[in-house]
Amino acid sequence: RQVEHAERKTMQATGELPLLEEPPLPLDQRQPLPSVFAVVHYVVARTVRNLPRQLCPICGEGALPADPKAQGEVITKGKGRHGAIERLYCGHWFHFACLEAALTRPPFKLDCAAPGCGKRVYHPKFSDKVDKLEKKWAMEQAKKREIGELAGLMGME
To answer: Is 66 helix (H, G, I), strand (E, B) or coil?
Structure first.
């Protein structure tokens, strides 16, 4: 099989066997595919360039910190004052901590507060079933009350 491959290469090089494909162009002569170019242009123009100016619709602070080094920490490791940032289906960027607080505490639903948006906010990490969220929240509140009462009885307040 390797012999056939070697013979085929030799015949193609001498011109005895026509090439089935054009040889690839050198890198400096290649043109981007229009479909890929449009996607890359959209991602860069709509996301990468605008991200440093985006505000969290919940708290109103910048989605990314002003310091470029801190921006890298937030993007790559999710470390920052508000934790990681998340882009939701409505297209806006939220601090994960703000999103968690809004979706796991009453009223358990959130409409995007960004100007002109108003879409309902969903996140796959949080349930959108209000009755389930209410039950969980009520249990957490009861637990806090019980711990506070016990601390009061034991004089540990």
So the answer is: coil
**What is the DSSP code (8-state) at residue 80?**
S
As a whole number of angstroms, the distance between CA 101 and CA 65 comes to: 20
Q: In this structure, what token pair is assigned to residue 77?
A: 């490791």
The reply to whether the predicted model has a pTM over 0.85 is no
Look-up of token digits 């595919």: 33
Asked whether 49 and 39 are in contact (CB, 8 A), the reply is no
The string of pLDDT tens digits covering residues 97-109 is: 888 888 888 877 7
Whether the Cβ atoms of residue 108 and residue 127 lie closer than 8 Å to each other? no
User: Cα separation of 12 and 21, whole Å?
Assistant: 11
Best CA proximity match to 127, nearest among 99, 103, 106: 103
Report how far residue 72's alpha carbon sits from residue 69's, in angstroms, rounded to the nearest whole number: 5
E strand spans, the chain? 85-87, 93-95
**pLDDT(19) > 60:** no
